[in-house]
Amino acid sequence: METFLITVLMISIPIVVLIVRTTRRPMGKLPPGSLGIPLIGQSLELLRAMKANTADAWVQARVQKYGPVSKLSLFGNPTVLIHGPAANKFVFSGDSSTVANQQTKSVKMILGDRNLLELSGEDHKRVRNALVPFLKPESLKQYVEKMDWEVREHLKTHWIGKQKVQVLPLMKNLTFNIICTLLFGIERGIRRDDLIKCFQHMIRGMWSIPVKLPFTTFSRAIRARWKAEKILKEVIEEKRAEIGQNSNSNPRDLISSLLSSGSREDEAITEEEILHNSMLVMVAGHDTSSVLITFIVRLLANEPAVYSAVLQEQEEIAKSKAPGEVLTWEDLTTMKYTWRVALETMRVFPPLFGGFRTAVRDIEYDGYLIPKGWQIFWVSSMTHMDESIFPEPSKFNPDRYENQLSVPPYCFVGFGGGPRICPGNEFARIETLVTIHYLVTRFSWKMCSDNSFSRNPMPSPSQGLEVQITQNKTIVTA
């Protein structure tokens, strides 16, 4: 009897397996491409291409070889590369039950797993709702004067009286000081100096292979993260004590605003979320804005017609001001051409080369399977430099944005798109416009270094974009 049962099982099990395999709904096949060497995959290839400023060509070569959807391995995870307006919409407006807003392992370990880039669904909505009130235009209007003061103090210290400057390091210094003053209320001094060093190491490690060896970029970034976290914990405790002593006062900085957010328990955010999102805001605001302003300076040195138009717009505003009078919100609303120049700069030289999402479940996309847990990689330049979307894409043309409706949705993704649009975009706009106003009205410049740049992971001009500067005769030092 026992022999008979074993025989039946041996015959029936393969039949059952065959029936299941043939009746199960197929999810599609994996995209073409190779995952490469375990852990490393194509990470070193991409990083080398970014450093050599050939990353766009590297991606284009993959598209020509494999098509619009392909698989590879980046930073320790199997990945699917997708591109185009439909891909951007899929990434930025995807259902959180399908696509999670999760970054690479290196980004997650450096910034923490409770920052806005990692959260999805109700958690993402809750934390975003806590951040947005402080970063919306109505709130930022009152900080234009402080930002104006920071920019003028920076120029007085680092530009006036100099013959040559390196723009990128100075813009990193400026944007970090603005963030510390306006968003975190951290005074100038040793603590602020230590923080900027920490965040420079953290940024370098965000696009790196997550190997914890003493000599690796990633390991240095992790050590810097722990030091930055310790400093920010001290700041959070100080802000909490201030709120306890002055419970009726309005929050004067982002951390105070986050500590005071949420009248209901389900609206409040945790200290861990405050900490992780503070680090995210510092990294995002410090690097992306400094790169944008640097490349505008680079662009104005190379495009005399654009420079003249920006100068004319800004001089008209300067002439309307009394000596020493600060810029106002109303002044910024008239800088329409200057902001179009900034948008076009972001199109041609996007601070973020691309980004990642994670498949929460098996996804069928464009006829291919994106397995659960795989990364989804999108690249900004794939639509920014598409001639079917932006005619003559290599030509710098700020007039593309004269009518915002002329740019199709999910094609220009300088600030992301849809529900995932950057909550700090208005802060970046104010910061950029105030800085450019004082640069063009007080200085003229010409390039000392060449036009080359690399990505690490943000675009970084050769020699930090060294320029020879001349102070305008009408300069006001107050």
TrEMBL record:
<comment type="similarity">
    <text>Belongs to the cytochrome P450 family.</text>
</comment>
<dbReference type="GO" id="GO:0016020">
    <property type="term" value="C:membrane"/>
</dbReference>
<dbReference type="GO" id="GO:0016705">
    <property type="term" value="F:oxidoreductase activity, acting on paired donors, with incorporation or reduction of molecular oxygen"/>
</dbReference>
<feature type="binding site" description="axial binding residue">
    <location>
        <position position="422"/>
    </location>
    <ligand>
        <name>heme</name>
    </ligand>
</feature>
<dbReference type="Pfam" id="PF00067">
    <property type="entry name" value="p450"/>
</dbReference>
<keyword id="KW-0503">Monooxygenase</keyword>
<dbReference type="GO" id="GO:0020037">
    <property type="term" value="F:heme binding"/>
</dbReference>
<keyword id="KW-0349">Heme</keyword>
<dbReference type="InterPro" id="IPR036396">
    <property type="entry name" value="Cyt_P450_sf"/>
</dbReference>
<keyword id="KW-1133">Transmembrane helix</keyword>
<keyword id="KW-0472">Membrane</keyword>
<dbReference type="InterPro" id="IPR017972">
    <property type="entry name" value="Cyt_P450_CS"/>
</dbReference>
<dbReference type="GO" id="GO:0005506">
    <property type="term" value="F:iron ion binding"/>
</dbReference>
<protein>
    <submittedName>
        <fullName>Cytochrome P450 716B1-like</fullName>
    </submittedName>
</protein>
<keyword id="KW-0560">Oxidoreductase</keyword>
<keyword id="KW-0479">Metal-binding</keyword>
<dbReference type="GO" id="GO:0016125">
    <property type="term" value="P:sterol metabolic process"/>
</dbReference>
<keyword id="KW-0812">Transmembrane</keyword>
<dbReference type="GO" id="GO:0004497">
    <property type="term" value="F:monooxygenase activity"/>
</dbReference>
<dbReference type="InterPro" id="IPR002401">
    <property type="entry name" value="Cyt_P450_E_grp-I"/>
</dbReference>
<keyword id="KW-0408">Iron</keyword>
<dbReference type="InterPro" id="IPR001128">
    <property type="entry name" value="Cyt_P450"/>
</dbReference>
